[in-house]
Amino acid sequence: MAWVQVRYSQGLTLLFNSDCKVASFCDALRDRCGYTDLSEAIDLLNADGGLAGLGAVAEGEATSRRASELLKGRGVYTLCKLVVAEDGSTEAESLWEEPEPEHPDHEAEDQG
How far is Cα 82 from Cα 40, in angstroms, rounded to an integer? Predict the structure, then answer.
């Protein structure tokens, strides 16, 4: 099995099995990450900021092509939506926010 780690929302991470069809994988991403109402197409950004290519898979191909062909097993990816700009180009907009750093010093002050 090919598992990947997907970062989304405010510092959240989930594991996904990429050994399935692209359409099923994208449905699972939307469902488990809470983006079922999102109208834009989704994709994943790799560590270098490049798109994995899930959104580029043709509709007919999405039911036969496997997500594991596009994703590296044990890879860490960031969920993004694909936004179409006015000029027709597509831009990836991250759906993950880096968590606020914890400040142990402030917690000690609050308790003390």
Answer: 6
